[in-house]
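Input (structure):
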């Protein structure tokens, strides 16, 4: 009897851990999608001066022009509000892996959905909370990756840098 109860608790615990891992992986990948969308929505010609905190030999500060979309102030602003978009995501279970996946359920302006629309999940607030936690905990990493153009940000940031999605390296890029 005790052994049966122990096995049940262990199975439930591993199921909860897997659900939590799927949630944080999904939140990271959705956050990356939303930040990339915000970056792409800014005029690419809009530039700002960025101080590098060095001086030239004559004492003048060294500055550089950087795209506004990838500037630290803009990225911090985006990170502070991007998790609100998680309320537009729905949860589904992947038919092969049985892992939870998250997909945007509402179109953005000028965008069509790659997944059929279904009602948003009432549990999307947990995705929002996971997103907020990740945005705070990994703020420096997000700024580092988004301040310059990088390929495969989802995999590089969510799988390799943070280990949130180490299981997702073999999944198609539009999943999670």
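Output (sequence):
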């Amino acid at each position: 009897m005790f052994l049966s109860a122990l096995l049940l608790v262990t199975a439930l615990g591993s199921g909860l851990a897997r659900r939590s891992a799927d949630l944080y992986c999904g939140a990271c990948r959705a956050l990356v999608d939303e930040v990339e969308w915000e970056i792409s929505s800014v005029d690419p010609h809009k530039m700002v001066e960025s101080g590098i905190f060095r001086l030239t030999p004559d004492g003048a500060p060294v500055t550089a022009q950087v795209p506004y979309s990838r500037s630290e102030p803009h990225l911090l602003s985006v990170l502070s509000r991007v998790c609100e978009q998680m309320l537009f995501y729905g949860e589904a279970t992947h038919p092969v892996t049985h892992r939870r996946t998250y997909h945007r359920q509402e179109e953005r302006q000028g965008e069509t959905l790659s997944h059929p629309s279904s009602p948003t999940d009432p549990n999307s607030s947990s995705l929002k909370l996971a997103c907020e936690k990740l945005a705070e905990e990994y703020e420096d990493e997000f700024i580092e990756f988004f301040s310059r153009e990088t390929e495969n940000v989802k995999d590089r940031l969510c799988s390799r840098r943070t280990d949130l999605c180490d299981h997702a390296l073999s999944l198609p890029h539009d999943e999670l």
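Notes: The mean pLDDT is 81. The CA atoms of residues 131 and 137 lie 10 Å apart.
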